[in-house]
Amino acid sequence: MFLDLHDNPIAEEEQSSWRAHVVDQGWNKFTAEDHAVWDELYARQVALLRGRVVAAFLDGLDLLDLGAPGVPELGRMNQRLQARTGWRCVAVPGLVPDEAFFAMLAARIFPVGNFIRSRAQLDYLEEPDCFHDIFGHVPMLAHSGMARAMEAIGRVGQQAIIAGRGEWVARLYWHTVEFGLCREEGEVRILGAGLASSFGEARASLEDAGIERRRFTTEEATASPYRHDAMQPLYFVSDSLDAVVQALERAELPA
Ligand SMILES: [Fe+2]
């Protein structure tokens, strides 16, 4: 029997809360300059990340063919991504409100900006663009463990927002999915999309002696504020990729 959403007003309401933010990617509107900016960012970042990012990230780039020239077309990318983990990306014109964002994640949908930075802003961004959203986030959505973990953080995020505890899940997300580090093959490597997509902070997060790196626990991370307007003074280091997947899958809003 098929699930009829019209018989379930809650599911229908949850869906409409995020569907209103989705737009067409408008891939044909990207100019030759836009595609050249993508290619330059991609080449520079991959060269920087080799040996500094978790192996699953580089695997994801290959599996999704993100190294093909130009800004990825979401339909084509989604064919590969959905076949692997059931995740798909939709285009949005800018930041999505937290409630809609976590509802999307719970449905294995990731929002991607329908624009790319200019060449004059290669290293400075006011809002996440498609390079951050696709290059930074999507490779890990092709990893089965992170695919589950991202759906789980979507569900607990919805609960947190309903409970008026949005900051708790924002910190959890920030210190793992965006700016998390993790141990792999005896080294500390980049996990988070904010680091993987940043030329300056990727290196600094691993190598800057003045930055604190603390072992990740859900309790510590959710108790720790973060900066969204500057480099982080503190990064959380998970014991392994499996450990951060488990932590996110098990995360429960404390009483
Ligand atoms: Fe992000």
From TrEMBL:
Pfam families named in the record: Biopterin_H (PF00351)
InterPro entries to which the protein is assigned, alphabetical: ArAA_hydroxylase, ArAA_hydroxylase_Fe/CU_BS, ArAA_hydroxylase_sf, Aro-AA_hydroxylase_C_sf, Aromatic-AA_hydroxylase_C
Domain of life: Bacteria
UniProt binding sites for Fe cation: H132, H137, E178
PROSITE patterns: BH4_AAA_HYDROXYL_1, BH4_AAA_HYDROXYL_2
EC numbers, comma separated: 1.14.16.1
Record key words, sorted: Iron, Metal-binding, Monooxygenase, Oxidoreductase
Annotated ranges, domain Biopterin-dependent aromatic amino acid hydroxylase family profile: 1-255
Similarity comment: Belongs to the biopterin-dependent aromatic amino acid hydroxylase family.
Annotated protein name in UniProt: Phenylalanine-4-hydroxylase
Species whose genome carries this gene: uncultured Sphingomonas sp
